[in-house]
Amino acid sequence: MASFPLILSLLTALAASVRGEGLIPPPPLVTDQPYFDPSMSTTLTAHVGRRAELHCRVHSIGNRTVSWIRGRDLRILTVGRYTYTTDLRYEALHQAGTNQWTLRITSAQPRDQGNYECQISTKPIKAFTVYLKVLEPRGEILGSPDLYVQKASMINLTCILHDLPEPPEYVLWYHENKSISYSSSRGGVSMVVVKGPTTTSHLLITSATEEDGGLYTCAPAGLFPTHIRVYVLDAEDAAATLKNTSVSRSHPPPPPEGRLPPPASAAAATTTAAATTLGSVTSGGGGCVLSPPSPLPLVLAFTLARILTFVWVEVT
């Protein structure tokens, strides 16, 4: 009868559960299979020369390891907290007790752009792919490389700077490699800068003269300069330039040297000679008439005439 109290307690617990008393929710489901955090981003943007950090968060890692693999050559970059590459720009970061493994690139370069895989050492391997986009700041002057303006009009040079990590500290303009002064005796020279992810600098020169023509340079802080050459023309020169441009666009270029088409008279003479060889030629009101040669069909005669014309073109 030693088991009677145990049976009684089980019956009491069962009765309590039926009445809804003393219910304890079951513990959350615990899995020993690691999985990636679904909130991770699949793309990352970095700028040339700046730090790039690719994060990978894994839950229920257990005793597995996390590795970073470069997609373009399948090179193992990191395993756990260890780095396995001679490129010192790469570094593995992981703080004990956390679920995040980070691949750091201290100075991103254009060649670093591409896919990177965060892999978990399960069987089969689980992988999460991140695409790294590396932006290289660049500048352009609208209308480059050459800009034609009419004398006494306004010169408006617009320098656009793309893919900047932050707006440049300053933007300088040069004319013939000399810094432009906005307070010179010439007057009418000003600059307007609009800063942002895409920074724009406008150089405005009123009442353009021939002395204002030449090479202009837009030189932002920390970026490569970009150039444009300005030509200041009077009204007649501007009209002639526009006319020449229109003519050059309306007429196709001549055929390559050494492959000129044969003159019409030479081609006709060649055809007549071939026809004479194969048959007789008679003149009439409508021109020359080729009478059918006796042994050869007419089609063969014209075929041979075409061959002779092609041979004449190759010889000349």
Brief summary:
This protein has 316 residues and is α+β, with helices and mostly antiparallel strands.
Q: What does this molecule look like?
A:
It is a single chain. It contains four helices and 21 strands. With 316 residues, it is α+β, with helices and mostly antiparallel strands. The strands form five sheets. It has a six-stranded mixed beta sheet, with no helix packed on it. Strands 12-19-18-14-15 form a five-stranded mixed beta sheet. Strands 1-3-8-7 form a four-stranded antiparallel beta sheet, with no helix packed on it. The chain is elongated, with a radius of gyration of 41 Å. The N and C termini lie far apart (126 Å). 15% of the residues are buried. The model is unreliable at 16-29, 254-296 and 311-316 (pLDDT under 50).
Number of helices: 4
**Distance between the first and last residues' Cα:** 126 Å
- The gyration radius over C-alpha positions equals 41 Å
Average pLDDT metric: 78
As laid out across the biggest beta sheet, the strand order is 2-10-9-4-5-6
The percent range for helix content is 10-25%
Report the strand count: 21
Task: Produce the secondary structure layout.
Layout: H1 4-19, E1 35-36, E2 43-47, E3 52-59, E4 66-70, E5 75-79, E6 82-83, E7 90-93, E8 100-105, E9 114-120, E10 126-135, E11 138-141, E12 146-150, E13 155-162, E14 171-175, E15 178-179, E16 189-194, E17 199-205, E18 214-220, E19 226-233, H2 235-250, H3 264-278, E20 281-284, E21 287-290, H4 298-315
Parallel strand pairs: 2-10, 12-19
Antiparallel strand pairs: 1-3, 3-8, 4-5, 4-9, 5-6, 7-8, 9-10, 11-13, 13-17, 14-15, 14-18, 16-17, 18-19, 20-21
Helix pairs in contact: 3-4
